[in-house]
Amino acid sequence: MHCFNTFVNKKEGFSMEKNRNLIIKNGNVIDPDVSEPYVEKKDIAIQNGKFVSIDEIDPSAAKIIHAGGHYVSPGFIDLHVHVFNQHAKVSIDADRVGISQGVTTIVDAGSSGYDVFDSFRKNVIETHKTEVLAFLNVSRKGLTESLSELADPSDLMTVEEAKEIFSKEKSLVGLKARMSRSVVKGQDVKPLLHARQLADQLNVPIMVHIGNPPPYLPDIFPLLRKGDIVTHAFHGKEHGILKKDHTLIPEAVDALNRGVLFDIGHGSDSFNFNTMKYFKEKYSYSFTSSTDIYDKNIQKPVGSLMTTMSKLLELGFSLPFVIESVTSRSRKALHLTEQGSFQNGTRADVTIFDVHERPTLLIDSNGNKKICHKMIDPIMTIREGEVVQKNEKG
Ligand SMILES: [Zn+2]
Question: How far, in Å, from the CA of 17 to the mean position of ligand 1?
């Protein structure tokens, strides 16, 4: 029996092939924008790094990738990671959790703030093969050594600073506000009220982290608007989204009904099998899947985005649902146009993967164990029509 992800940081098998004209032949293609048939054996054509229809491409000028027997999806998006090694102690190398694990776009969730974003751009965004986007911490400092970046109101980014940085940094997709007692100290929801002002001025989503109160969810959720994202939504701590009878607190129902999005953000501390199981039993709201991965949780309990997705399969979610949670739903949540889709003319990021029958003991963030019978394993990662990663068969 295998434990956790066996593909982590395997350098052997890594290769670079520069040919941006590709035909991916005979794969089991999963197109999250098409519901019927969900899985279809067909060819995917890429010209100059963009998807094109198969009759537009000259096969003699294209490299052929034989994908028979494998699944082919638009590149996976992980919208909550920490990859700012140069600044935040909770971080990991972007490509290790990106292309090495079949993830073509990652979103750093608040490791960086206004004061340190130059370093984030130079050291992370510009130096990795994985596409790196970011939620900017509403604290000017980003994640600090103490991890209490919202305890001092004088550290909050001003409206002027926010407008300046969002107008020039194209990798920014929204704001991050961590609403845990340990982060805000005595400030309760005040930093979120400030984030609300910034977000309304900028017209971007807020990703709100939830954890141990205060602030409490009945005070947090009413401040969120359509398109805002609640990460760590399915944690197993007290005062979470579920009442004792395993139904959602009314503020969570109201938030979901007005278009607030729930996100997994697995992390060391924030994903519980039972919370997700009870949510699934009673509700059909969609959500996004993400890892909150960094060096201290990659071995366990997180593993990779595909490990998190494998847990969802075991909990009874269908493969198409799980694929949407890392492609089309993430694209919409982040207001992206080029990612998470096979649409002609968009950027050709592709994840080729297998689903292996391989019973594997996995744990959630509270140490609960589950034998997961089907494991999703990366086979090949393509960025803008370039093969950037090949993995051995799992
Ligand atoms: Zn995080």
Answer: 33
Question: How many other C-beta atoms lie within 10 A of the C-beta of residue 89?
Answer: 15
Residue of 326, 388, 380, 317 lying closest to 354 (CA atoms): 380
CA of 65 to the centre of ligand 1 (A): 36
The 10s digit of each residue's pLDDT in 39-92 is 999 999 999 999 999 999 988 989 999 999 999 999 999 999 999 998 988 899
CA–centroid distance, residue 385 to ligand 1 (Å): 30
Mean pLDDT of 111-115: 97
The mean pLDDT of the chain is 93
* Interval between CA 20 and ligand 1 midpoint (Å): 34
Q: How close is the Cα of 199 to the center of ligand 1, in Å?
A: 19
Domain boundaries 2-73+345-390, CATH class: mainly beta
Q: Which CATH class is domain 76-334?
A: alpha beta
Q: Is residue 12 pLDDT above 70, yes or no?
A: no
**For the chain, where do the domains classified as CATH 2.30.40.10 start and end?**
2-73+345-390
